[in-house]
Amino acid sequence: MGDVKQLWKEIMEPSEEFTPVPFWFFNDEPDETKIRLQLEDFVEKGVNAFVLHPRIGIPETIPYLSPAYFETVRFIVKTASEIGMKVVLYDEGMYPSGSAHGMVAEENPEYASKGITLAEEPGDQEILARMPDGKYLIYGFTGGTIRGIHFGEDDGENGAPKSADILNPEAVQTFIRLTHERYYRELKEYFGTTIIGFFTDEPCALGRNASAYREWAKGMEKEIVLEGGKLIELEVLFEGLENKTTRIYRKLVKLHLRETFYKPLSDWCQDHGIAFMGHPAESDDIEEELYFHVPGQDLILRRVVPMTGGLSGKDSVQAKLAADIARLLGCRRNMNECFGVCGRGQIPWHFTGEDMKWYIDWLGIRGVNLFVPHAFYYSVMGKRKEERPPDVGPNNIWWPHYRHFSDYIKRISWLMTDGEDCASVAVLCDNNLVPAEEVAVLYENQIGFHYLPVSMVKGGREEDGTFRIGDCRYEIILNVLGKSYESQQELRNIRMVYSAAEILKLVKLEEYKTFRTVTLSSDARSLRAVRRMKGDQELIFLSNEGKNLVQTRLLAVNMENPVWIDLWEGKVYGCSYTLDSENKKWIDVTINPCETALILSDSEGVLTDVMSRRTKIEDWTERFELRTQEGNRRIYGCTVERDESLAVPDSFRVSGEEMAECWCNGELTGVSFWNPHTFHIGTKLKEGRNDIEVIMTGNASNIYTDHNVFFGLSVE
C-alpha cells in the first residue's frame, strides 16, 4: 500500500522540521569564524535549529542588548539563515525570564520584585495585616535577583541583576519593550522565517534567593477578602500549610501571572508571526500552558531517574501533561527542555549516551515531539564548563556520531506529530493537582489515557455517551481528585470512575477490552505502549523503560503482515508470530532495556530489505584483549579466521562502558552507546584472517572533572 512506502520514507529520511532544537549557550567572546564553523557542524550532525541562549561567560565588553551584543546576534541569525537553520530567541540574560538582565528595575526601581513576608517589625514596608502572634504581614521588595551573563553575576554574587516584579503589568510592558521590541527592531526581516519563536524560561515574580517571600500582586488583599478569605489566615502560607485563604491566594496569584505575564507575551509573539515557547516554573503547572503556542516543560536535575523512575512524583507528569494539553488545544507541537544537569550521582558531567536515549524514549512515548537538549556550549573554557553541565552536544564524546541521536529524535518527533493518539480514558487534573502515582497502573498495564484539565472541560461536549474535545473522544473519566469535580455539566452523562483499579476491572470485560493499547500474553510492567493512527495506518509504539529484558507476545489485531521497525537503527524486520486455536496472531516481543519498536502492517509487502530479527547474539567480550590505552580511549582487539569450514557469526556483542566503536579490517562497522554493545560485521568479513577492534571511549567526566569513571570492556 502506498502509505506504507511513504511512512517508511519519512522514517528513513526524517524532515528537518523535526530537528532537535538545542539550547546553544552563547557564553564567550564571539568569533565569527568559530560561530560559522559551529553552526555548519550542527547541520552536518543533523541539527537544523537552536535556541540562542545568552549565558554566563559573555565578556563585560558586550553588555546585554547593547549594539555590540546585537552585532553578534545579527551575525548568528544571518549565518543561520544562510545555511538553512531556524532560530528560537531566548528572552532573558540569563534566567529566570522577565527582568531584561536587571534593566527593568534599573529603568524604574519600583519595578523590582515585590512580595509578602512576615516580620516582627514592619519598617517602611506596606502593612497588609497583623497576625494574632503580633507579626506583621508586609508587602515590599524581595531583594530577588536572576542569574546574569557575565562572571560575577551568578547567584549570591554582587553583580547578580535585580529581578523584576512580573505581577506588575507596567513592569512586564517595560520588559517587552526592552527585550522583544528591541529584538524585533534589530532582526525584523528574519521574524517568521529564520526566527520561529521566543523562549521564556520558568518566570518567577520573586526572583532567586528570596525564599522568605511569597508572590503578591498589588491590591490582591481586596480580592482575597471578596473571595471570602481572611488575611490573617495567610500566616500558614509560610509554614507550608493550607487553608481556605491560601487556596484562594494561590488561585489569584496564578490568575495575575497568566494575565499580566503570559498573555501579553503570547499575544506579542502571535502578532509578530512567531511562536510563544518555553515552559512555566513547575512540572504540574497547567493554566500557564494554555498561553503557549508550543506548550512545554523541562526535564532537569535528574528528577526522573532512568530505568528506575518515571511513574511517581509531580515531575513524572510533566511530559505527558504538556503533550496532552497541546493535543487538546489543537497545538501541533509540544516541547521539552531536556537533559539539563542530569548527571549521575555527584559527578556533574557523568551523563551517558544510555541516559540520553532513555530520556528521549521516556519523553517521546508520552507525546513530546519537539526536543530542546540542554545544552550545546559555544565554549567550555575555564569556569564555563562548570556552568550547569554537561554539554550534550559538540563537547561530548558522542559528537562525531551525533547523527544517530538527531535522526532518532527526528523520527520520534515525526511519529508523535499529526495523526491520532488513541486513548479512551481521560484523567481529570487541576492546577498543581495532577495524578501521578494514581495512574502508574495504567502505564504498567498498557492502558492509554490523556490528562484532561478541569479548566478545559467546558471546551468539550457530550456525544453519544462519550466526552468529545477537539479530535479526542473519551468513554471513561478517571477522577481521583474528589467528588467535587464531577459537577461539571459536560461530564454528567459520562461514565466516571474514582480509581485506576476500577479501570483494570473494566478492561477485563469484553466491551472495554479495547481500552488496552495492546493485549499481551503476560504482564510486562516496564513496557509502555502507544497506539497512533497516521492516515489509515495503525502504528504501535513500544518502549522498555525498565532495566530488565521484556519477553512477551502481543496480539496483532487486523495486521496482515506485521513488521518491526527499529527507529534507532532505521531498519525493518519481519515479525515472528504464532497462531492460537482461534487463528489469532501473537507477535513475539523481545525488547531490551533502552529499546523501542514501531510495529505496523505491511499487508501488501511493499517494504524491501526486510531482515530477520535476531534476539540471541553471541557474547564475544572474553575474546578481546586490551591492545593500548590513549587517554580516555582503550583499544581492544581480537582476530578471527574465516574459511569454508569455519563460519563466523555476522553479529556479536560485548559488555563494557561507555561508548564503543567497532572496526573490522580497518573499517568502521558501528557505534554503540549502551550495554550490551551489539555490532554487525557480516559485510566486512573476508576469507582468512580478520582483525576486529573495539574502541571504548570513557565518559566526558574523565575529561572535564577530576573524577575517574571506569570505562572499557568488562574483561578487566
List the helices and strands and how they pair.
Elements: H1 2-12, E1 23-26, H2 32-44, E2 49-54, H3 67-82, E3 86-90, H4 103-107, E4 114-119, E5 126-130, E6 136-141, H5 169-178, H6 180-187, E7 195-201, E8 214-215, H7 220-226, H8 244-271, E9 275-279, E10 296-300, H9 318-329, E11 335-340, H10 353-365, E12 370-373, E13 376-377, H11 403-415, E14 420-421, E15 425-429, H12 440-444, E16 449-453, E17 461-463, E18 466-469, E19 472-474, E20 476-478, E21 495-497, H13 500-506, E22 527-534, E23 537-544, E24 550-556, E25 562-566, E26 571-574, E27 577-579, E28 585-591, E29 596-601, E30 611-612, E31 625-630, E32 633-642, E33 651-654, E34 656-657, E35 659-664, E36 667-672, E37 677-680, E38 688-697, H14 701-704, E39 712-713
Parallel strand pairs: 1-2, 1-13, 2-3, 3-7, 7-9, 10-11, 11-12, 15-16, 15-20, 20-21, 26-30
Antiparallel strand pairs: 4-6, 4-8, 5-6, 14-22, 17-18, 18-19, 22-23, 23-29, 24-28, 25-26, 25-29, 27-28, 31-32, 32-38, 33-37, 34-39, 35-36, 35-38
